[in-house]
Amino acid sequence: MDTLAIVILNYNGQPFLAKFLPAVLANADGHPVYVADSASVDSSVSFLRANFPAVRVIELPRNEGYAGGYNLALEHIRTQYGGAKYYVLPNSDIEVTPGWLSPMLALLEANPRIAACQPKIRSYDQRTLFEHAGAAGGFVDWLGYVFCRGRVFATFETDTGQYDDNRQVFWATGACLFMRADVFHQTGGFDASFFAHMEEIDWCWRIQRLGHEVWACGQSMVYHVGGGTLHKSNPHKTYLNYRNSLFMLYKNWPADGWLWPKIMLRLVLDGLSSLLFLKVGQWPDIWAIIRAHFAFYGQLPRLHRQRNLLRSQQTTEVVLYPYSIVWQYFVEKKKTFKEM
Questions:
Q1: Is residue 339 part of a domain?
Q2: DSSP label of 338
Q3: Average pLDDT of the chain, as a whole number
Q4: Which of 11, 15, 3, 19 is nearest to 35 (CA)?
Q5: Quick check: is 24 in a domain?
Q6: Do 250 and 212 fall within a single domain?
Q7: Residue 9: helix, strand or coil by DSSP?
């Protein structure tokens, strides 16, 4: 069994592989590098075989998004290659830096309760700023809205070393997610119904309810392009983010009697957020929010079964951020994590 497997999921991402894979290989510290291809229709697989013979290529039969794709890929590594103690899942549009692995592995080795962690994520294009997907570790407020140290909604902090510590967080980003392999497989991996976006937050919530911890490591850093497979301007991204946020909230919220009032309040707040799209004439995004809510209601029987199953298996309640990040950001004008 390998100590660490570096696993990159790819879908039609040959330009990113050509650009970023050499640095991954150069800084792999002897650990195996896998590329799991989700039935790309470009020349990704032939390009990899011709130019990167050291990479172990896994050809998946179809595109099942981030969640389903990694479930298939990591199970393949476990059964066909003997598995690994840890996995790291860098997106194909991640630029790694020298020494990025050793602080992460040291953190995992020092604390067996840590089942997931992440490095600092900076923007590839604006290199001193934190990047949207994860920044320096994420949190979830009491309505299910997510935010990060270094990035709250559209405010991106400059990295001046303010988050160079190692600390426990609520969720670690899927853009560059380190995890204990045994915990991943024991929990059934990601919820494949999410397809993409927030599946890692859902998984982090679930593993904490089993008594594991999630951390951010300030001594490791990578750069992220963002939107490499699905650009942030694509309405389908809006749909997945709003739908999956509701999926996650319903499945994992404690049995305190306040679930449905929160869902109804989310309906109102999500409707108000559509006014931001209306302001700039982005009608497809407004329709995406409406579709996301109808998709959520249509999946309630399945989600209810999942909720009951999780409650029968998991006993540790997880503390969410006790305030509304929407209120603090838009009304109280608190724009950074340090102000919260």
A1: no
A2: G
A3: 94
A4: 11
A5: yes
A6: no
A7: strand
Q: Are residues 153 and 273 in the same domain?
A: no
- CB neighbours of residue 93 within 10 Å: 21
Measured CA to CA in angstroms, residue 63 lies from 38, 93, 152, 183 at distances of 5, 18, 31, 24
On whether both 132 and 281 belong to a single domain, the answer is no
Give me the helices (H) in the chain, please.
14-26, 44-51, 65-80, 101-110, 181-186, 199-208, 235-252, 259-279, 283-298, 300-313, 325-330
pTM above 0.85, yes or no: yes
Residue 294 sits in the same domain as residue 171? no
Q: What is the structure's pLDDT at 78?
A: 98
Q: Which structure tokens are listed for 184?
A: 């991943």
Does residue 311 form part of some domain? yes
Per-residue model confidence as pLDDT tens digits over 120-151: 999 999 999 999 999 999 999 999 999 999 99
Cα gap 153→176, rounded to integer Å? 20
- Are 210 and 187 within 8 A, CB to CB? yes
CA torsion sign for 295, 137, 168, 25 is: positive
Q: Which two tokens stand for residue 50?
A: 């011709």
Phi, psi angles (nearest 5°) of residue 215: -130, 160
- Name the domain count of the chain: 2
Task: Collect all residues with Cβ–Cβ distance below 8 Å to 96 and sequence separation of at least 6.
Answer: 20, 23, 24, 27, 90, 222
